[in-house]
Amino acid sequence: MKNSENCCVYTKAQITWLVVLRLFIGWHFMYEGLVKIMNPKWTSMAYLLDSKGPASSFFIGLTQDPATMNLVNLCNEWGLFLVGLGLLTGCLSKLSAIGGITFLGIYYLSHPSFIGAGYIMPFEGTYLWIDKNLVELAALVVLLVFPTSKIIGIDRLLVKAMPKSILKLKLI
């Protein structure tokens, strides 16, 4: 349901658990990005070279040029951090959710949990088709469809301050 301010109307329990979900996923993304940013030796090269998914030639190809690898690493580090920060603060959370969905989709395409796919870096558990990346991706879709940042988050303030022409983009 929507109220007159074009924002969703949820029960207190729904708001609570949707916000908790947003915070948990936001923390996960932000922390993953921060760990990579703080480690000057971190690189995604081994992960990309280990790709066995349907687009493995693309991911392996990214490792062939040092400048491309630097860009991939920079985008991964800061992208994860900014997605997490956006979700945690409820700032541009729709855009953050779309960014997170994109990252997780890319990770799944690179390392799908298909029968017979063996990776250098093993999974924490035993998966068949559905892995933690797809579960978190689905949770981000839930947050995209049932947003809470206009209720609890910086987006609540941005909606009041931004011109209607910007709000029509529906990034908030």
TrEMBL record:
Main location group: membrane
EC category name: oxidoreductase
Coiled coil: none
Record keywords: Membrane, Oxidoreductase, Transmembrane, Transmembrane helix
Membrane-related topology note: Multi-pass membrane protein
Subcellular location: Membrane
Origin: domain of life: Bacteria
GO cellular component terms given for this protein: membrane
Classification via Pfam families: DoxX (PF07681)
Recorded GO MF terms: thiosulfate dehydrogenase (quinone) activity
EC number: 1.8.5.2
Transmembrane segments: 15-35, 78-109, 137-159
Protein name in the entry: Thiosulfate dehydrogenase [quinone] large subunit
